[in-house]
Every structure is written in C-alpha cells, then in structure tokens.
C-alpha cells in the first residue's frame, strides 16, 4: 500500500511490510479500507486537499487530516492517526468526533515515519467512546488498577486547566470551556479552576525546542537526498533556522521531564482535567491545519488525552474539549470520557448534521 508521507521524495513508495499498528489490526481481523492523506511528514504546514466534511471551505485539521475527515464523514467507523503536536486531538475537534491520544509510547510506532522520537504518538479517531475502548483492548492499553463498575459524573471532581495558551482562545473555545464546566456542575460534579505551578509557563518554549531539535536530525536524510523536494518549513528545521542551541535542547528535555510527575500528581486528584482542544473552530482554507497551541504541552507531557465533541462555534462548526489523565491511566480516562461525552453531546449545543 502506498506510503508517501505526502512528499514527492517518497512518490510511489509502497513498503512490503505493514507497520506495527496495522499488523495488530490485521491479526485481530480488522478490514483495512485504505489509507488517507496527511500533511507533509505530519507537519502543520502544506495541508492536503482534504476538506472538512462539515464545511468544505475549511480545513479538517492535521496532520491526521484524512483520518479524522473519513470518520467525521462516515466513510469509516475508526481511523488511526498520530500526534506530534496536536495532530489527533485538533482534527478530532474540527470534525466533531472523539479522538484518543494515548500515553506516549503505549502503542508501537514501528513502521511510522518519525518526526520526533520524544513526541510522536499513535492515536485513534471514532464517533463514540465504545469504539475507542475497542481499540484500547486491541492495542493492550491497560491501567495498573481499573475501578470496578462504570464512572458517574455525580460526585466526581474535575479540574479546569486553561494552560499558558489561554490568551489565544477564540470565542468558540471560551464558550465551550465555560459551558462544559457548567454542565458538569449541573450533573453533580465538583469543578474547580486550577492554576498550573511555576514552570509550566515554559512548556510551550520547551516543546518547540524538542520538536525542532529532533526534527533537525529526523529530516537530514531527505535534506541530503532531495532538498529541493522538501518544504521550506522542514528545510528550516534541518538548517536550524531558529537557532536552537544544544544547551536549549538539554534544558527542554530536563524541564519537560521534571513537569511530567507534577502534572501526574495534579491529575490524580481529579476524575480528569478539562481543557481546550483547539484555539477555535476550524479555520477557512486548507493551507494551514490550524494551531496546536492547546495540544502541544500535553503531547510533551506524555499524558493521555481524549477530545470530546458537543460544542459549536460562532459559525456552527464543531468545537471540542479535552479530558486529560495521568500517564498510563488511559482506561480510566476512557471511562470518564464516556460519561462526560453523553452530557456534552446531548446538552453542549452542537449536533451532527451528517
């Protein structure tokens, strides 16, 4: 099957062996319908021609553009994607569907083209949490301790975390977060806004250092082989156009690593963290896939994240919210997401028209 990474460098490339994730699917009896398109090497630039099924003038998000659009458009019940910044959660929000970015490295990346070893994560798209749980079963996502029985919103505690990206939030996201918190309270949950401790304000900067520093090595082979066929955005990574020093990379590795147990400790106090999935509705056009501002910190922290649909923006396009749990609490997060999803989808104000 063609695996071209939306790059002319790999035009016509068709590996003989399946990627690890596809092997697992086939061995379980899954029917592989086909492959969908992505941005060039899963970057945020050079969006493919895939359109948003809810408004063809808008982007479906990316880099997992085709995966999310296919599920949102009922062409497939489930799709695989990946996330290095916000490439699973953001398209999930833009297409009005559920999306799971599991704990980092919980799913084999064998056979996937690398962008960033520290950030790349395989994830899933579906129109319901039952299908996400099916994929979690299939890929062996297990918590150390799984509570017996279902999760009840009534009596549960949720933390609202706006993140350092909050100044970028548009009206759709601001309204969704306010409404989401109100709905949880109306169903008997305790919801409190939590300010992240000192150090988390550096997370966006550290994320960029990690991403660009690792991409500098990742795309050196393509740069040496066919620089003219590589987008300027990726050429800049290899040429270190932003001047990221090795010292800055080390600081980023150590800084983010120190924050991970801190966010785990905060998240353990709650059923989940409620936080934005996107800046706002899907932007018009397909040249950009939108901003990963509200996703990249969680990607770097390696936490599991689920996008929950149910809200709409000023143009009637879907806007989702994210639930976040501590690392390797993916199953607990899915149980919480199922209960919260019922509320958000029925009372959030946005309904699927497809």
Explain what the structure shows.
With 354 residues, this protein is α+β, with helices and mostly antiparallel strands. It has one domain (8-347): Alpha-Beta Complex (Amidase signature (AS) enzymes), CATH 3.90.1300.10. The protein contains 11 helices and 8 strands. It has helices at residues 20-27, 65-72, 89-94, 129-138, 171-186, 203-218, 220-226, 232-238, 246-267, 296-301, 330-347, and strands spanning 78-83, 98-101, 121-126, 157-160, 190-193, 272-276, 305-312, 318-324. It has an 8-stranded mixed beta sheet with strand order 1-3-2-7-8-6-4-5, sandwiched between helices. The model has no long low-confidence stretch (mean pLDDT 96).
Proportion of residues in helical segments: 25-40%
- For the report, how would you describe the main beta sheet? 8 strands, mixed
Biggest β-sheet: strands ordered side by side in the sheet: 1-3-2-7-8-6-4-5
Q: What number is the mean pLDDT?
A: 96
CATH top level assignment: Alpha Beta
CATH architecture: Alpha-Beta Complex
Over the alpha carbons, how many angstroms does the gyration radius reach? 19 Å
Global outline: globular
- The total number of structural domains is 1
What is the end-to-end distance?
29 Å
Number of strands: 8
Quick description:
This is Putative amidase. The protein has 354 residues and is an alpha+beta fold. The chain has helices spanning 20-27, 65-72, 89-94, 129-138, 171-186, 203-218, 220-226, 232-238, 246-267, 296-301, 330-347, and strands at residues 78-83, 98-101, 121-126, 157-160, 190-193, 272-276, 305-312, 318-324.
